[in-house]
Amino acid sequence: MQYQVFSREEQVGQAAATLFAAQLLRKPTTVFGFATGSTPIPMYRQLVRWYEEGVLDFSYAHSFNLDEYCGLPADHPQSYHYFMRENLFGGINMPAAHIHVPNGNPKQQDDAGWAAEGEAYDMAIAEAGGIDIQLLSIGANGHIGFNEPDEVFIRDTHRIKLTQATIDSNVRFFDSEDEMPKTALTMGIGSIMRAREIVMVITGPNKADIVHQMMHSEINPKIPATILHAHPNVRVLLDEAAASKL
Ligand code: GLP
Predict the structure, then answer these.
(1) Which element (helix H / strand E) includes 52?
(2) Could you give the residue numbers annotated as active site?
(3) What is the mean pLDDT of the chain?
């Protein structure tokens, strides 16, 4: 796992955007893995700017997002479908048919329905040729996507119960805790680890502890991000605040 520290948050976004742009320029049919959360927003802004300036063309690229809350309609302002439209897809020319975000609102919302949804998602990634470059950030409890701390790593795309720590940190985006979904559909650890390259962006002082734990712990499902030690091509881009305990 290689890491680089930048003095400011915006530089992390610029550096990540540069890696994603270079990948697209090298391979116009790139399959991207995208993430939500506040950390990737500066990178998405830069990609939109480069598209507007005519530097980037996404018309042959495809994308798969990491996760989605269960039970929120795609047009709910806190759904990750909505987030991606607002922050990236609405500003670039990737065809709608090439954009994939897990469906957190399938018709069949029982165990079999969620399992079928997860299986179809992993299948679609494989049929697209696999993810070339995956963006990740990290939850304060070490989650990647919505793979929460657990006794085991879960390989495939699946429905997960959010931990109280995640509910506590994301409830600020909802009017109340009652309104916030308590489950999500997330790419599994295997789905993430199959990406050929992983770029992780982490900023802000509230991530300093988990960054230290991720870097210095053995691979361990209680800190899901530690699995990245087993990936041959991970680059972690940090600002000084997130790197302050290294
Ligand atoms: C959510 C997402 C994660 C993301 C995390 C951190 O929980 N499921 O993929 O990494 O938020 O978000 P932020 O970047 O806002 O700290």
Answers:
(1) helix 41-52
(2) 67, 141, 143, 148
(3) 96
Answer yes or no: are the C-beta atoms of 191 and 225 closer than 8 Å: no
- Which of 82, 96, 41 is closest to 174 using CA atoms? 82
Residue 210, φ and ψ in degrees, nearest 5: -70, -30
Cα–Cα distance measured from residue 42 to residue 33, given in angstroms and rounded to the nearest whole number:
16
Residue type, 9: E
Q: Average pLDDT of 150-154?
A: 96
Query: What pTM value is reported for the model?
Result: 0.96
Q: Which residue has the tokens 């047009």?
A: 75
pLDDT tier at 74, thresholds 50, 70, 90: confident
pLDDT digits (tens, 9 = 90+) for 40-50: 999 999 999 99
The predicted pLDDT at position 117 comes to: 95
**Segment 100-136, tens digit of pLDDT:** 999 999 989 899 999 999 999 999 999 999 999 999 9
Amino acid at 14: Q
**Which tokens hold the place of 81?**
């479908």
Q: Whose CA is nearest to atom 6 of ligand 1?
A: 139
Which residues have any ligand 1 atom within 6 Å of their CB? 35-39, 66-67, 137-139, 145-146, 166, 170
Handedness of CA 115, 64, 139, 234 (dihedral sign): positive
